[in-house]
Design a protein that fits this description.
Strand content: 25-35%
Order of helices and strands: EHEEHEEHEHHEEE
Distance between the termini: 37 Å
Radius of gyration: 17 Å
Strand order of the largest sheet: 2-6-5-4-7
Structural class: alpha+beta
Length: 199
C-alpha cells in the first residue's frame, strides 16, 4: 500500500478555505493547474511510499505511541505560497511548532519501516493545485507561468481561516486512480493526547 501520515482539517476549516479559493480559480493561469479536491485536502506529516503488509502492525503500533505522547493543538489555515511554478499551497498558522513536533515524532516512528521517507524537512502546507499533467510537445505552453502562480499566491495571501483543534493523527492510503489524480483515504486514526501541554 502507498501510505502517508497526515492531519485532516475539520469541515468548517475546509469550507472556509474552499470559499476563498473559488474566485481565485478564475484568475489567469488557474485553468492550467490541476486543482486538488476539497475531499482530499490534508496536511502531510510524512510520506511513507509503498509499505509491505507485514510491516503494518509495526507501523500502526509506532503511530499509536506517537499519538498517545502528543497533545492536541490549535491550528488555522492561513496565507499561501508556491513551490516554483509547480505547486500552489495554503499555509498553516497557530501552534505550528506543535505540528512540527508531531511531524518529527512521526518521522522517528516510521523511518525504519520504509526506505522512501526523505530526510526530515517538514514544511506545513495544504496543496491546492499542481502544474497540469499535459503531455507532448506543447507542454510548456500549457503550464501556468511562475508569475501567474505568484498572482494566485497574492490573491490568497491575506486569507485567515478559523482556529481548529488538530486532535487526530491519520494513516492515509494514496490511490493513484485514473487520469483524475490521486485519491486519499484514511485507513486508521488515533486521537492525540488530551493533557494540556500546549496553552
Amino acid at each position: 500500500m502507498r501510505l502517508f501520515v497526515a492531519v485532516l482539517p475539520p469541515v468548517a476549516a475546509l469550507q472556509g478555505l474552499s470559499d476563498a479559493v473559488a474566485p481565485v480559480r478564475g484568475l489567469p493561469g488557474a485553468d492550467r493547474l490541476r486543482w486538488t479536491t476539497v475531499e482530499d485536502w490534508h496536511l502531510t506529516l510524512a510520506f511513507l511510499g509503498e509499505v509491505a503488509e507485514d510491516r503494518l502492525t509495526e507501523l500502526t503500533t509506532g503511530l499509536a505511541a506517537v499519538a498517545e505522547a502528543t497533545p492536541a493543538h490549535r491550528l488555522r489555515l492561513a496565507g499561501a505560497g508556491r513551490f516554483g511554478d509547480r505547486v500552489l499551497w495554503a499555509g498553516v498558522g497557530g501552534q505550528t511548532w506543535a505540528l512540527r513536533r508531531l511531524a518529527e515524532a512521526v518521522y522517528g516512528a516510521t523511518e525504519d519501516i520504509t526506505a522512501e521517507v526523505d530526510a526530515f524537512g517538514f514544511h506545513p502546507h495544504l496543496t491546492l493545485a499542481r502544474a497540469g499533467s499535459s503531455r507532448g510537445r506543447r507542454r510548456a505552453e500549457r503550464r501556468a507561468s511562475a508569475a501567474e502562480v505568484e498572482a494566485l499566491v497574492a490573491a490568497l495571501a491575506g486569507y485567515r481561516g478559523p482556529d481548529w483543534e488538530a486532535a487526530e493523527l491519520h494513516l492515509m492510503r494514496s490511490d493513484q486512480g485514473g487520469g483524475g489524480g490521486p485519491h486519499y483515504e484514511s485507513v486508521r486514526a488515533w486521537s492525540l493526547a488530551r493533557w494540556a501541554a500546549y496553552p
